[in-house]
């Protein structure tokens, strides 16, 4: 019997599933939306991140809580797709958020090097 997916386990479960869809893991583009995105290359899933971010902004502007949640979930999902592709994980993001905790947002932004 498999374990139930919960709020505490969903990110790890998604990461494992997304990893199994990578081309070198034999993800099948004809059977998986994510494998199809990976097969098309980064432009495909990066475009989806942009689309989902825009849809989240529009949902927020409409002040629609249900749509905000739905679009945020879509954005998180496609971000996880990208993280997995680049051999990163949600844990890397959590570690960065922990690192930033207690640091003023203005200080954190100022500490980043500006692109040339």
From TrEMBL:
Q: Which InterPro entries match?
A: HisE, PRib-ATP_PPHydrolase-like
Any Pfam family:
PRA-PH
Record field: transmembrane: none
Named from the GO MF annotations, one term is:
phosphoribosyl-ATP diphosphatase activity
Going by the UniProt record, its keywords in alphabetical order are: Amino-acid biosynthesis, ATP-binding, Cytoplasm, Histidine biosynthesis, Hydrolase, Nucleotide-binding
Reactions mediated catalytically:
1-(5-phospho-beta-D-ribosyl)-ATP + H2O = 1-(5-phospho-beta-D-ribosyl)-5'-AMP + diphosphate + H(+)
Q: What is its main location?
A: cytoplasm
Q: What pathway annotation does it carry?
A: Amino-acid biosynthesis; L-histidine biosynthesis; L-histidine from 5-phospho-alpha-D-ribose 1-diphosphate: step 2/9
Tell me the superkingdom of the source.
Bacteria
Q: Does the keyword Nucleotide-binding apply?
A: yes
Compartment annotation: Cytoplasm
Please state what class of enzyme this protein is: hydrolase
EC number from the UniProt entry: 3.6.1.31
Family label: Belongs to the PRA-PH family.
Q: Which NCBIfam families match?
A: histidine_hisI, PRK00400.1-3
The protein, known as: Phosphoribosyl-ATP pyrophosphatase
